Every structure is written in C-alpha cells, then in structure tokens.
Amino acid sequence: MRCADAVPKLCSPRLIAAILLLPVLAGCSSKPGEPEPLSKEALAAVSDDPGAPTEDLARALDDAFTKDGVGETRAVVVMHGGKIAAERYAPGYGPDTRFVSWSMAKTVTATMIGMLIADGRLYLDQSPPVPRWQRPGDPRGEITLRQLLQMRSGLRHCESCDPPYESGEVRMLFLDGRDDMADYAESQPLESEPGAKFEYSSNTTVILADIAARVLTRSTDPELRRRAVADYLHSRLFKPLGMDSMVPEFDRSGTLIGGSLIHGTARDWARFGDFLRNKGSYKGTQVVPRRWVEFMTAPSPRRGNYGAQTWLNQGAPEGDDPLFGERGPKSAFAMIGHMGQFVIVAPDRKLVIARLGHSNSEEIPREVQELADIVELYPGR
C-alpha cells in the first residue's frame, strides 16, 4: 500500500518539508525573553573602543533605525571623548551625504553672533543695527541682541499656525517674504513688550543673520552680502573645525537663511556638537569665547529649557519638552531641527549624538527616547 493511500495528511510534501526545517529554525531563534541576535551591520557600526558596552550600543543604535514608529533614521554618529564611537547610515546615505539642518542652523547662527561680539562689532545688550528700528519713536528700538538670541523680542510671529500659510515662518520662507526674508521679519510690529515673552521664531534667527551681514559689509549688493557672511563662517568657524562639508544657503537679497538651511555631513554636525561640548575650543584653540557657549547653554529668563538659539534638557514647561527630561543629565543641551534632526550634547558624559532623518510629529518623541537609551549607556561624572 502506498504511503499516500494510508496516511495522506501525515505524508504530505509540505508537512515533510516543515519537519525537516524544524532543527534549522530552532537554531536561528532566541530563547524566550532573550533579544534577537544582532546583525553584522549593527555590530560593525560600533568602534573598537566606544566607551560603552559594544553590544548594548549596537542594539540601541539598531533600535534607532529599525523600531516601529520612530520614522526614517538616515544617519547616526555617536562621539565619545572627541572620537567616533559608533556610526551608521541607512541605505542610500553615507559619510559624504550632506544633510539639511533645518532649525539646527539656529545654533550655528548664534555662534557666529558670539564671534562678532568677541570681535567688538556687536554688543549683547544694545539695540542691533536694524535701520527701520532706529527711527525716532519706533518701539522696536528697545529690542536688544540678547532678547533676539533668547527668542523674546516681542515681535509679532506665529511659527506653526493653522492654516499653515498663515505661519510667519512659512510666509517668510516660501511666500511673500521669500525674496527678502530679513525685510519681512524686521517689518513685523511688536505684539508684546521686548523681553517679556518667549516666542520660538525662525524669523528672529534670520534677523540675527541680517545683523551679521550688516556688520560684515556696508554693501546692499546681494552677492557681496552673501560672500561676506559665507567667507566669515568658513574662515572663522568651519575651516578651523575641519567642517569642510558645510554649505549655508542665502535668500535672493543675500541674507543667510540662518534659522533653517545649512547643509553638512553627519560627521560634521557631530563635530560641531563636540566643539560646543568643549565650550568653543577645538584642538587647543579657543575658536569662540568659552563664556559665549556658557551663555548659549544657560536657561533664558522666559523659558527654562531654552538658552540662546539652543535647547536645554531642563526646565521644560509641562507637556512641551523636545528632549528627554529626567532620563538625561540636566547639563545636556541640543540643536534640534524640523522632522527629527538632532545634535545632542551631554558634557558630563563626554558624549555627542547626531541623528539625521525624517520623522513626523508623532514619531519624533519615540525617536528621542531611543536617543535617550544611547545617552544612558554612558555613565556621568
């Protein structure tokens, strides 16, 4: 009698194949409660001496790329003690890819302003050189450079309005203000007393960029304005730090789009974070005054988790914390950009994490927690 005639179900080809595969499948699976084995790609992303347990760091990095609900992570660079501890890229991206900053550019603009103050060209507690504000009787003449840096100018602004086309940022970048962004931003009236209220504003950072151009050149020629700021950034900041990939963008009037559009590799963004971790020093050279970085990373009077164009991991209003609060050290600070761009600096752990990618508003908080997992692998002092 044929096998198929006697026990057709037990002798089916599909069942026999499944039985033969059981030992293979058993050998590939983890024991209950144990994590899945790490891929070669995940392990290869970690350096020989990362300053944290290799497998734990590889897994935390892997989660930032592969976990559901975190969005699209395109690059992560972890630096510890000034050296790359781990580095990983999504397919299609690599060490030479330039990533857009979005609002991480604000911290770069603030650093430039600090250098101009150190040069004696600007003064922190004086009204900045914005001609229309200096007309007799204009109340905007009371706005100081400090207030602009700390996002408390009092100028009318709505960063994220509904509908979006009513947003001051959208109008400046894409609609009626796009050809001369500084003119659009500086023409806004006061909606509150200067210094009295925190109002996050990309337009304010464009005003800072325009101020930089005005002190670097008297010309109103767009090309000369662009060249003056670009040359200053490259010669005084990017080149000394070895940030050769950096490409700043300018509007048609020659104003740096300093709140949104600077491009650079993940390594260079991490390098800039490490420069801030060292309080403006790079390889023994004080590129920007130490006290300026301390000012940028100190709580401002109207917002405990914001310094000068830089976010802090402390003092956040309830329900409005873009970082990870109690999970990380209070000394941590960050450059944060639209759609999940982060450079997180934890000075007490000698740590910098640059994460570049594309996440929506619901995914970003989950991604932040994955970055907090990396921070927690490094002990504080």
The run of helices and strands is HHHHEEEHHHHHHEEHEEHEEEEH
Query: Numbering strands along the chain, what is their spatial order in the largest sheet?
Result: 2-1-11-10-9-8
- Terminal Cα separation, in Å? 78 Å
Tally the helices. 13
**CATH H-level homologous superfamily name of one domain:** DD-peptidase/beta-lactamase superfamily
Describe this structure as you would to a colleague.
The chain has a domain at 99-312: Beta-lactamase (3-Layer(aba) Sandwich). Strands 2-1-11-10-9-8 form a six-stranded antiparallel β-sheet, with helices on both faces. The chain has a three-stranded antiparallel β-sheet with strand order 3-5-4. The chain contains 13 helices and eleven strands. It has helices at 3-6, 13-28, 40-44, 54-66, 105-118, 145-149, 168-174, 181-186, 202-216, 222-241, 266-277, 290-296, 364-376, and strands at residues 72-80, 83-89, 99-100, 247-248, 262-264, 281-282, 285-286, 311-312, 333-337, 341-346, 351-358. The longest helix has 20 residues, at 222-241. The chain is 36% helix and 13% strand. The protein is α+β, with helices and mostly antiparallel strands. Residues 1-11 and 15-29 have low confidence and may be disordered. The chain is globular. The protein starts with a helix and ends in a 5-residue tail after the last helix. α4 runs antiparallel to α13 (364-376).
